Structure formats: C-alpha cells, structure tokens
Amino acid sequence: MRFFSVAWLIMTKDLKEEVRRKENVLASLFFAFISLVLLHFSVDEMASDITKAGPGVLWIIVIFAGSLFMGNIFRKEEETGTFCALLMAPADSGSIFLGKFLANFVFLSVLESFLVVLAFIFTGFPLHRGTASLASVFMLVTLGYSAAGTIISAIVAREKGAALLYPLLLYPLLVPLFIAAVSLTGLAISGAGILYSPWLRLVILFDILFFCAGLILFEFAAEE
Amino acid sequence: MIGIVRKWAIVTTVFALVLNALSLYMVFFHAPVEARMGHVQKIFYYHVPCAVSAYVLLFVAFTASAAFLWKGARKYDIWALSSAETGLVFVLCVLTTGPIWGRSAWGKWWVWEPRLTTFLVLFLMYASYVLMRVFGGKDPKTAKIAAVFSIIAFMDVPLVNRAIAWWGSAVHPREVTLDPWMKETLLVSFPAVLLLAAAILLWRVHLACLEAEGT
C-alpha cells in the first residue's frame, strides 16, 4: 500500500507544482494550438477530408507537445536539487517512477482533450463518431507514451544536452506506437470496431513492455 | 583481457580476410549473373549477411548492457559500446546496399518496405545511443543510463518490425529460391561477413580496453 501512496503523493505534488508554475502547462497547450493552426495550412487534406489526415496530424502534435512537458519532469528536479532528495527518500524507486508516470499521464490526457476539442471546432474532426472507441484509443496510447516518456526523461535528466537528447532517444522508440495510434484513431473515427484490430494488441503490448521496463530499470537510470 | 582479445582479433581477421577473398571470387566468377537484374543482384550476397550481422551485434550490445547493469563490471560496458557502434556500421551497410538493390528491383531508391524501414528505425535508435555516449564522454553515469536505453531499444525492435510490416506492403520475398551456384556463394559470404563483423568488434573492444587502461 505504501508503494501506491508514495506514487500518489509524487503525482499530486508534481501536478500541483505544474499548475502553480503554469509555464510548462501553458507552453505545451499553446504549442499544440499553434501547431494545429500551422498544420491546417500546410496539409491539404485537413481542409478537404479531415478523416484522412486528422489522426496523423493529431498524434504528431500530441507527441511534440507532450515531449515539451515530459522532458522537463525530471530535469526540473535535477536543476532545483530535489532529484537526489527524492531518491534518498525511504521509498521504492518503482513508486517514484509510477508517480512521475501518473503525473505525465494526467497531463497528456488534459492536453489530448484540449487538442481534440480544438480540432473539432476548427477542423470539424468527427468527435461524435465512435466516441467510446476514440477515448479508449487515446487512453491506451497515452499509457504507453507516458511510460516511454517517463523512463527516457529519467535517462537524460543528468546528461549534458538533455533537451537535445530527449527527442532523439524518445521518438525512434515511439515509431510502433505512433503507427498503431494513427491506424486505430482512423478506424475509430470511421466508425469501424477496434476491438479485434491487431493494432490494439500492439498498443497493449507496448504499454506492458514499457511500463514494466520503466518500473524495473528506473532504479538504474536514476541512481547517482 | 587485452592479450586474449588481441589474439582473437588477429585470428578472426586472418580468417575473415581469407573467407572474404574467396567470397568475392565466388560472387564475381562462380555465381551466375541474374537474368532480370544483372550485375546489381550481386549486392544481395553482402546485403543479407550484413543485416544478420547487424542483428547479432545489436543482440550482443543488449546482452552486454544487461550484464553491465547486473554485475557492474567495466568490461561489459566496453563490449556493449563496441558492439553497438559496430552494429551501427552494419546497419548503415544495410541501408546503403538496400536502396542500390531497390533502385534496380523496384525502380525506386527508397521503398517504405517493412524490413528496410525497420533498419532505418534501428539506425535512428542506435545513432542516438552513440550520440549519448559522445555527449556524456567517459562519465560512468552515462555508461549506466546508456545500458538502460540499449535494453529498451532492443526490446522495441520486434514491435517496430511488426508495426511496419502491418502498415506497409511486403516487398521482400518471403521465400527465395536460389540457383545452386548462388546458394553456394551465399553460404560462403554469410560466414565471411559474420567473421568480418566479429573481427571489427574485437578490434574495437581492443581499442576500448587500451583507452580504459590509459585513463
């Protein structure tokens, strides 16, 4: 029980801090908005047939805007000197990973909800078609993205050129998740079922693999 | 360790040179010229063994990284870094020979085809790994986190391969029927390239050991 209560404490601490500081949250949300506007002018299908280009555009924005936020989750602790304190706390390293993972998951969910509503208003993204499927896809993909983002964020936190390294290490790992996310979102908004799609199995496998890898390997990535 | 590595490096280099000379002879004088693609088809005898060597080297990097995290001995990190770097060179060989083949077989330099695209993602992953090692220098902390990344990256490879295979069309033939002379040539070029990979890896490990001794 202590494992989960520590994770919960870390998550609430991080979210409170982010809401109070505002800069990370606002920068990511604003980046998502401006990207949507720019992509609307550069991708022809955004204006003519949103169901074709929409899923890819949305996930590109989620991945870029999300990494702006997640890349900082350990680096800010390192800059303020609280990372060591966090590691010295009498808590399992797995619970620290879980806390950070949950904070990232909550933030990404907020970002995605914001982006999907914006896409609905500005581009007519068909939010009403297959809403339950769409919500499940976003939730499952976000689990995998948060797990991968959290562990890579821990890896680069103490490295020179962390801001530069973060996307270089993270994006190649996300290739299978990204392809599956775009395909599943396309299926969901076309009204087709996603339950028997092989992409769904791939996303679940990615989630399990990266979550377990994060729990086990966080100790090595974080220790001084 | 340096003495043993050096001895094995010399032995594998000698065998690799002999076998590669034989393999080159067989590629140009033993194997027949393919009817449709002509001489360009001969790149196949190096393209496929390079791909297998790259997989083997990256598997060595994964195993050595896991051993480094578990045991903490410096020698495992040396093996992990050396095999990842050598693996990256072989991935680059696949990415160079693949388009040359592709231009002749499919009329395009690049086709978003499952296996070739998997190698492109592999290149991006391990180039980032090497970049991280360059940025981090000789910091022992970098060695540890690079090992974590190496394990995660290798675990991601089957998923990358599946995702791209489902997404794209399969251009690579699933089953290849080869002329007996072509088969014999391939049977020589496989160990020749694998031995070359082993020789390069051993010399890289030797160099890393010398560097470690000097610091």
Describe the structure.
The complex is a heterodimer of chains A (224) and B (215). With 224 residues, chain A is mainly alpha-helical. Helix content of chain A is 84%, strand content 0%. Chain A has one domain (2-222). The longest helix of chain A is centred in the middle third of the chain and has 31 residues, at 93-123. The two termini of chain A are 27 Å apart. The relative contact order of chain A is 0.15. The model of chain A has no long low-confidence stretch (mean pLDDT 88). In chain B, helix 1 (2-30) runs antiparallel to helix 6 and helix 3 (74-105) runs antiparallel to helix 6 (180-214). The relative contact order of chain B is 0.18. Chain B has 215 residues and is mainly α. The model of chain B has no long low-confidence stretch (mean pLDDT 87). Chain B has helices spanning 2-30, 44-71, 74-105, 114-136, 140-167, 180-214. Chain B has one domain (2-214): Four Helix Bundle (Hemerythrin (Met), subunit A) (Up-down Bundle), CATH 1.20.120. Chains A and B meet through helix 8, helix 9, helix 10 and helix 11 of A and helix 4 and helix 5 of B.
